[in-house]
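Please produce the structure of this protein holding beta-D-fucofuranose.
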Amino acid sequence: MKISHILILCTLFASSLGPVACIQRPDSLSTLLPDSNSNARLEKKYEDLIVGYAQLGAESEWRAANTISIKETAEQLGVELRFLDAQQKQDNQIEAVRKLIIQKVDIIGISPIVETGWEEVFQEAKNAGIPIILVDRRADVPEDFYVSYLGSDFLEEGRKAARIMADLVNEKASIVELVGTIGSAPANDRYLGFREILKEYPQMHIIDSESGDFTRARGREVMAAFLKKYGNEITAVYAHNDDMALGAIDAIEEYGLNPGQDIKIVSIDAARGAFEAMIAGKLNATVECNPLLGPQFFELALKVVNGQPIPKWVPSIEGIFFPEDASEILPTRKY
Ligand code: GYE
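Below is the modeled complex.
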């Protein structure tokens, strides 16, 4: 790895990733310099890499930002990227991995749409000697099927959302929950993390919970159905992402209530749309989930290809945002 690349990466982290740490810095730059006693001269550089990426789809603002981050970073680093979009279907994503195996890419990044069903195709990649990095979402496979998971702590995001909600509603609420894609890691863990904390608040109840598939359109439909069924009984919404919260806001307004006031809303992602909704007083808080994973992903990929050790989990560091800070922060948001 060239020193200039390390500098580029660290600059990228500092400028575009905000709170995400520059991971796994080499102990000393001298370890990266060609050395006649080592294989350093044989080490691959970013320009030598062919990286396959099996993206799950384009369901949300988060995903759009994530895709841009992967593509832009590849271009900046000079990596040859083979990017495939599975359009929210696991079968397509499995096929995408197979295509990348046939193309003999050096390494594959994948955001698995759901947690289960990956063993067969991951085994095929393993047989072909192509390492896999899980990006953004985990897969439920034995640890030796992937080299690293780069992404968020979704359980913790669910816990954070519950704690904020408790504050907003004075520890008393009838909550409806908009769940993400069924079977996906973020939906599973945001569901569990929220409930873990809710146990501490006997007067906060989830009265209904249904999937809005992480999209604005489904969030709106599900929320409209909840309102039809429960009407004014609903005092709070927990949405597993901002897009569904924005859909719920539309449905609440159509129903004639004031989102953010009559019904408190907490969501996850901290995308620009959420900041705009907070500024308009319609959303009460958003828990950050950082999609700008491109720089960390390619740094990991290069290390793996060069046989350097990497952590099994590279977590993102994330915050929580509230309406009072939204106007100040919005102009600096990168997604
Ligand atoms: O929260 C949601 C997206 O996997 C963390 O997927 C990601 C989630 C994100 O559709 O908006």
